[in-house]
Amino acid sequence: MQSPRVSIIILNWNGLQDTLECLDSVKKINYLNFEVIVVDNGSTDNSVKGITKRFPEVTLIATGKNLGFAAGNNVGIRYAINNAAEYILLLNNDTTVDPQLLNAFLEASYLYPEAGILGAKIYYYSEPNKIQFAGTTWNKQKCNFTNIGEGEVDDGITYECYSESDYVCGCALFFKKEVIEKVGYLESKFFLNYEETDWCFRSRRSGYKCLFVPKAKVWHKIAVSFGGDSSPMYEYFVVRNKLLWAERNLSLVEILGVHIRVYIRLLNEFSPRFYIGNYHQYNFIKRIYWATVKYLKDFRKKPSDARFVAQIYGLRDYIIRRFGDCPNNVRNLNKI
């Protein structure tokens, strides 16, 4: 096997400790011809100084402001291409990696030359043997993605084969330089979330396949930059960007289906569950009464629920075509 030049791009925004841990694991990768590029998105936690001091050999590009995942990675991709990269790996700063990661990706690329984009087997950082991502499929009937293997303990047998995936997770996304040259860069409108999904779908329309690579292993902390995958800011981007992704990549019928799913989700968030309960010490009439009282109390709380409010903002901004970063009032919801 040849040893083509690989550029690993790690995006950092106020995540110094996570990035240092990520770089520690990247340093142990068993491959000679690679460089590491850290793009700092305007951090205010002394990330630039801390990373430069600990890893002086790393190329650090400071953007001066938070460009988001898409535009920030695009800065690193341009630098990598201008410095003769043949392959590029986008790697989240809240990950750690297996030492054989690049060898696994490159072997798969040689075996499947039609695959322009390759994705890792991703595990939960907090549960190292439990799978977060082993490929994904788009269900046209349900208008939703199914992440293969999600939540399952890896038995070393079930998810050990190469397989096509409708997209690969952006926390460890490996691709050939030629894909960027043919398809273009990540769409900055998304800012965070669904940008890799959009890019994979665009790439597939251009004739490239997305491939799940089981030997390429990564451990992911999940949505650290959002404040967690149940934070208000995460909910904002999921609602807005899923609708944007759908209009750019799906048929009219599927777009309608996605819209319906989003609206149903909002209604479910707005309207709490009516639960009678199984309290045998009360008769049925009293149980109905107390269930109704609790429902009304919960209903009054819903409009002030930070996650629900963030979802409404996401829908509003999609409708008025406000893309890019989220508004400050959404970021403030993360502090509630």
Task: Describe the protein.
By secondary structure, this protein is α/β, with parallel strands linked by helices. The protein folds into 2 domains: 6-225, Alpha-Beta Complex (Spore Coat Polysaccharide Biosynthesis Protein SpsA, Chain A); 232-333, no CATH class. 41% of the residues lie in helices and 20% in strands. The chain has 11 helices and 12 strands. The protein has helices at residues 16-26, 47-54, 68-82, 101-111, 177-183, 195-205, 232-249, 252-270, 284-301, 306-319, 328-333; strands at 6-12, 34-40, 59-62, 87-92, 95-97, 115-124, 131-133, 136-139, 144-147, 163-164, 172-176, 209-220. Strands 1, 2, 3, 4, 5, 6, 7, 10, 11 and 12 form a 10-stranded mixed β-sheet that branches. Strands 8-9 form a two-stranded antiparallel ribbon. A hairpin with a 4-residue loop joins strand 8 and strand 9 (144-147). Helix 7 (232-249) runs antiparallel to helix 8 and helix 7 (232-249) runs parallel beside helix 10 (306-319). It is globular, with a radius of gyration of 22 Å. The termini are far apart. The mean pLDDT is 90.
